[in-house]
C-alpha cells in the first residue's frame, strides 16, 4: 500500500466498543482505517487526479477524505463571548520525548452541544524518509514499514481544505527533530495567518 498508519497517529485511536478518552478520540480500527485511506487514494489516482495536496514542507502532504467514521465530530469551534471562559490551557508534550509546549483547547464535554459531525478527515502524511529521520533523532527503533507515505495525524473537520496549523505547532516544528519538531523553519506570513485563525477558533479535545 502507498499509505501506512504510524504509531504517532495510532495513539489517537481506540478500538470499537471502547470509550474514547483524552488524546484517543477516534473509535475505529487502525488497520481498517489505513485500508480505507488507501482505497480512496487509489480511486483518485485511477480517476486521473493527484489526491495528495501540498503541506507545510515538501515531505508533508494532505489527503482530504470524506468522513467515514460514525459519530466523529469536528475538532474546531468558533470562540464566542458565551464559550470563551470554557477554554483550557496547559503545557503538554505529545510524547514522553517531546518538549512540552503551551496548548489551548475546549474540553469536549463542555461544548458537546455546539459541535457537529465532521464532514471530512484531513489525513496528514509524512514521507517515509522524514519519518525515518525523525524516529532516529528521537531514539525510536526502525519499525521496518516502507510504505512511501505514513499517516502522522488525522484531523476531523468541516472543510476539504487545510485549516492553518496552530501557532505553537509551527514553533515546535522549528525547534528541530531532537525536540519533537520537524526542523522546518517558521515562515512569518504563514505564522501570521495561523494567529488570525486561531485567535478566533479553539481546538476541541
UniProtKB/TrEMBL annotation:
Classification via InterPro entries: DUF3228
Protein name stated in the entry: Flagellar associated protein
Protein's organism: Spumella elongata
Stored Gene3D superfamilies: Protein of unknown function (DUF3228), domain 1
Amino acid at each position: 500500500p502507498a499509505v501506512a498508519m504510524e504509531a504517532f497517529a495510532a495513539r489517537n485511536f481506540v478500538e470499537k466498543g471502547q470509550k474514547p478518552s483524552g488524546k484517543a478520540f477516534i473509535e475505529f480500527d487502525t488497520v481498517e482505517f489505513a485500508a480505507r485511506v488507501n482505497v480512496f487514494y487509489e480511486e483518485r489516482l485511477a480517476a486521473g487526479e493527484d489526491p495528495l495536496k501540498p503541506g507545510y514542507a515538501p515531505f508533508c502532504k494532505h489527503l482530504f477524505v470524506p468522513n467515514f467514521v460514525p459519530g466523529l465530530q469536528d475538532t474546531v469551534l468558533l470562540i464566542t463571548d458565551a464559550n470563551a471562559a470554557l477554554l483550557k490551557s496547559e503545557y503538554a508534550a505529545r510524547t514522553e520525548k517531546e518538549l512540552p509546549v503551551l496548548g489551548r483547547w475546549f474540553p469536549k464535554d463542555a461544548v458537546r452541544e455546539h459541535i457537529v459531525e465532521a464532514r471530512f478527515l484531513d489525513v496528514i502524511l509524512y514521507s517515509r524518509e522524514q519519518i525515518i529521520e525523525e524516529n532516529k533523532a528521537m531514539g525510536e527503533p526502525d519499525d521496518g514499514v516502507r510504505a512511501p507515505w505514513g499517516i502522522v495525524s488525522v484531523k476531523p473537520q468541516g472543510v476539504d481544505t487545510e485549516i492553518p496549523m496552530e501557532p505553537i505547532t509551527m514553533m515546535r516544528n522549528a525547534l528541530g527533530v531532537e525536540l519533537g519538531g520537524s526542523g522546518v523553519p517558521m515562515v512569518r506570513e504563514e505564522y501570521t495567518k495561523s494567529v488570525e485563525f486561531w485567535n478566533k477558533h479553539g481546538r476541541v479535545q
